[in-house]
Amino acid sequence: FESGFLSLTIPQNSSVMLGSLSGNQLGIWVAHGEGRFELPRPLTDYHVAATYSYHGYPANPNGSDGDVAALCSADGRHLVMMPHLERAIFPWQMAVYPDHRQNDDVTPWMEAFVNARVWCEQHR
């Protein structure tokens, strides 16, 4: 088992939860004992929603192919993610948080949960 704080890059993506965070690089917690993305086809065949910001261990702690940290379905409704965004909602949960944002009530990760709620409300 390993726990650590590292950085994710959010590329342009169609994820309901992460789409609006495209273009950001954000800190997040990982906690795992095993499990990784093994992607036998070219990365362009997948809908990558997040990657580890740096290649190799410890930045990609589980060795996921292509440094992939999250994938979504083609329609963006389904998200699989290795890091734990629920553990990075409040600034006090972060190992590192920008000095100029210390008065934030929540981190940018909260936007993912707001996006999910809004999507559900619009698709009842």
The biggest beta sheet reads:
5 strands, antiparallel
Radius of gyration: 14 Å
Mean pLDDT: 95
Low-confidence stretches: none
Q: Structural class, please?
A: alpha+beta
Which strand order do you get reading across the main beta sheet?
2-1-3-4-5
Principal-axis shape: globular
Tell me the number of helical segments per DSSP (H or I, 4 or more residues long).
1
Q: Kindly state the number of beta strands.
A: 5
Q: List the helices and strands in order.
A: EEEEEH
Q: How much helix is in the residues? A: 10-25%
Terminal Cα span: 39 Å
Question: Approximately how much beta-strand content do the residues carry?
Answer: 15-25%
Describe the structure in your own words.
The chain has one helix at residues 110-122; strands at 2-9, 25-32, 48-52, 68-72, 79-81. It is an alpha+beta fold. The longest helix has 13 residues, at 110-122. It is globular.
Write the layout of secondary structure elements.
Elements: E1 2-9, E2 25-32, E3 48-52, E4 68-72, E5 79-81, H1 110-122
Antiparallel strand pairs: 1-2, 1-3, 3-4, 4-5
Key traits:
124 residues; alpha+beta; five-stranded antiparallel sheet; 1 helix
TL;DR of this structure?
The protein is of the alpha+beta class.
